[in-house]
Design a protein that fits this description.
Distance between the termini: 29 Å
Low-confidence stretches: none
CATH topology of the largest domain: Arc Repressor Mutant, subunit A
Number of domains: 2
CATH superfamily of the largest domain: Winged helix-like DNA-binding domain superfamily/Winged helix DNA-binding domain
Mean pLDDT: 91
Order of helices and strands: HEHEHHEHEHEHHHHHHHHHEEHHEEEHEH
Largest sheet: 5 strands, parallel
Oligomer: single chain
Number of helices: 19
Structural class: alpha/beta
Helix content: 40-55%
């Protein structure tokens, strides 16, 4: 069993009188994590928001009726809670009126659950994001040497638990996972009329991994207007499939201020949407694959260790650029990401002039652990 980083974090929060929310894409292991946490407990009541009778149960429910359903159970878990209408109010009702139970809710999309719980549960919740298995978790599981040996494999197939646990079946499982299942919550919204557009948009994004993206250009490729493209990307981001990296700017007139790059939280999903599982040595996009892998792993690490660092990329109109710029605790650090350890890189002169004394590191496949493991850089 792979130990997840959130396990000890959540264990420490139990019994503090607040609801615990675990957000993350479908199939990243939220339910497995909770089953592991409560494997020796008979005091847990589970609900699954994907089931219609569970959704019906929570409609117009009262505290007294909930107490009847809960009985003497001290831990209440609601999986896929975003599927329940007005879930924020329902969670608030439980937290306020039945304070002796520990409430835990999971959601595979933040656009419904988070929007509905932020105001009702202000000051009453701990909220955590969960991602596919991380490089750090696998290093803890079987050691750094083994995980670095598997780096080319991870760059192609990613880190979804089902993929890791079923070697030899990666391609079939990834195609099943990427074939609308990940987008189930998005497609169920009335706002999304054409699910095929979501897939086409993801394909267009995948081919531009590591490059600046234009909503106008993506719209022309997919057949959507730029505002709809932006809306769909926000939904994909809120469903933890992709994330945006905005541009860093502060001093220079020609710094790009409103640009963005888009990355996938998991390389396997990225490769599945374009149907390319070629091995690393046979790929022309290995640089983009490595960049996506490194930056997504860095963000997992920052999230799990509750860092408040801001992360961006930097580029000027003259096309001078730095792949990744991070700012935390008043300190700015710049990183260039290169798959080939022999590839040289230097800090652009205009960046060095504008931001003197900023540390600059080159991350490659030989030293990648320095960037994506905690307490390294």
């Amino acid at each position: 069993m792979i130990t997840r980083e959130l396990e000890n974090t959540i264990r420490k929060r139990l019994g503090q009188g607040k609801a615990i929310l675990i957000m993350g894409a479908r199939q990243v292991g939220k339910t497995t994590l909770l089953k592991q946490l409560f494997s020796n407990s008979d005091d847990v009541l589970w609900f699954n928001g994907d089931e219609q009778d569970v959704r019906n149960l929570f409609e117009n429910i009262s505290a007294s009726r909930l107490k009847l359903f809960f009985g003497n159970r001290k831990t209440i878990i609601i999986d896929e809670a975003q599927r329940i209408t007005d879930i924020g109010l329902r969670l608030k009702l439980i937290t306020d009126q039945i304070p002796d139970v520990q409430l835990i809710a999971t959601g595979s999309s933040s656009f419904e659950l988070a929007n509905q719980v932020n105001e009702p549960l202000t000051g009453r919740k701990w909220e955590y994001k969960m991602f596919p298995v991380s490089f750090e978790e696998m290093v803890t599981h079987h050691g750094l040497l083994e995980e670095k040996r598997l780096l080319p494999h991870r760059m192609v197939y990613g880190y979804y638990p089902d993929i890791i646990n079923h070697p030899g079946e990666e391609e079939e499982l990834l195609m099943q996972l990427s074939d609308s299942y990940l987008y189930k919550d998005i497609i169920s919204l009335d706002k999304i009329k054409k699910s095929d557009k979501i897939v086409k948009l993801l394909q267009a994004i995948a081919f531009q991994t590591g490059s600046e993206v234009s909503y106008n250009e993506l719209g022309q490729i997919v057949g959507l207007d730029p505002k709809t493209v932006e809306k769909y990307i926000i939904l994909l981001e809120q469903a933890y499939i992709v994330f945006r990296l905005s541009s860093f700017s502060r001093n220079l007139r020609n710094e790009l201020k409103n640009s963005r790059k888009i990355y996938f939280y998991d390389n396997g999903i990225r490769n599945a949407v374009i149907g390319n599982f070629s091995q690393v040595e046979n790929r022309t996009d290995v640089g983009s694959l490595f960049e996506n892998f490194v930056i997504s792993e860095r963000i997992k690490m920052l999230q799990y260790h509750q860092s408040h660092s801001q992360y961006r990329f930097w580029r000027t109109a003259a096309k001078q650029e730095i792949d990744y710029v991070e700012e935390g605790n008043g300190k700015l650090t710049a990183f260039e990401i290169k798959w080939n350890p022999l590839k040289k890189a230097s800090m652009p002169s205009s960046f060095r002039t504008a931001y003197p004394n900023v540390p600059f590191f080159i991350i490659n496949r030989e030293n990648v652990e320095d960037f994506i493991l905690p307490n390294s850089l």
